[in-house]
Design a protein that fits this description.
By secondary structure, the protein is α/β, with parallel strands linked by helices. It has helices at 13-22, 44-60, 71-84, 96-103, 116-120, 122-131, 143-150, 156-166, 189-195, 206-219, 239-257, and strands at 2-7, 27-32, 65-68, 89-90, 109-114, 137-141, 175-180, 201-204, 230-234. It is 48% helix and 17% strand. A five-stranded parallel β-sheet has the order 4-3-1-2-9, with helices on both faces. Strands 6-5-7-8 form a four-stranded parallel β-sheet. Helix 3 (71-84) links the parallel strand 3 (65-68) and strand 4.
Length: 258
């Protein structure tokens, strides 16, 4: 049995790393849309076509379930994918609901980091409108962070300066939780943690996504039979990018083992 993971680039590896830890008895196929990364600045309909083409290639490889490990791609295409394919499909959305629930009693605000496209889509506005009764959610696009991640730019000084610049207009005493609303962003959780006040929690949707995946696999009767083997694909068939994905996955897992 093989579970497919799809993202525009290497960001979804942060989700697959969670699956490898929680569901080790599966095989995995990871697809990155290297021809079109990043999705954040692009047109919605343009991106939807890219997603459909890439997932079609994954289906031809014989996957048994699919995780759309990208908040932007989920917002744009997950409903259409579920209409087209009968296998279990799990999408992602920024972890705004749990963040609001965790923060409700503290009087603190929630700050959501995401791509421009995710923040501009009706799905995000509907999510915030549904769960943010107290008006405590603010949103901040961090487009450069995807670019840094794709370049494997993990230098602490560079990234810390970037975060300080982006957060310079915010009084962090007002916030209790930061939501990492793009799957590239957890690659920088450890750097962000070091520079934030200790009272601020950092949350993402990765663990919840994998719990949902596990439940759907059980419901569909898909057995946990595999060896934890991971295969990589990318839309431009670039062996250099395949090596980059190996490097990024190892980096992420090492950071989270510390």
């Amino acid at each position: 049995m093989t579970i497919g993971f799809f993202d525009s680039g290497i960001g979804g590896l942060s989700v697959m790393a969670e699956a490898l830890q929680r569901l080790p008895a599966q095989n995995y196929l990871y697809m990155a849309d290297t021809l079109h990364v990043p999705y954040g600045p692009k047109d919605k309909d343009e991106v939807k076509g890219y997603i459909m083409d890439a997932v079609s290639r994954m289906m031809a490889e014989g996957i048994d379930a699919l995780v759309v490990a990208c908040n932007t791609a989920t917002s744009i295409a997950v409903n259409e994918l579920r209409e087209m394919y009968s296998l279990p499909i799990v999408g992602m959305e920024p972890a705004v609901k749990p963040a609001v629930e965790m923060n409700r009693a503290t009087g603190k605000r929630v700050l959501v980091f995401a791509t421009q496209l995710t923040l501009s889509l009706p799905k995000y506005y509907a999510l915030v409108s549904r769960v943010d009764e107290g008006g405590i959610v603010d949103s901040l696009p961090l487009p450069e962070l995807v670019k840094y991640c794709e370049e494997l730019q993990f230098d602490k000084q560079v990234i810390s300066e970037y975060f300080r610049d982006k957060l310079s207009g915010y009084n962090l005493d007002d916030y209790g939780i930061i939501v990492l609303g793009c799957t590239h962003y957890p690659f920088y959780r450890h750097i962000l943690r070091e520079m934030l006040p200790p009272h601020i929690q950092i949350v993402d949707g990765n663990a919840g996504t994998v719990r949902r995946l596990s439940a759907l696999l059980t419901r569909a009767g898909i057995a946990h039979h595999g060896s934890g083997n991971v295969s990589f694909m990318c839309t431009n068939d670039d062996p250099v990018y395949i090596d980059k994905m190996h490097t990024a996955l190892a980096y992420f897992r090492n950071q989270n083992d510390e």
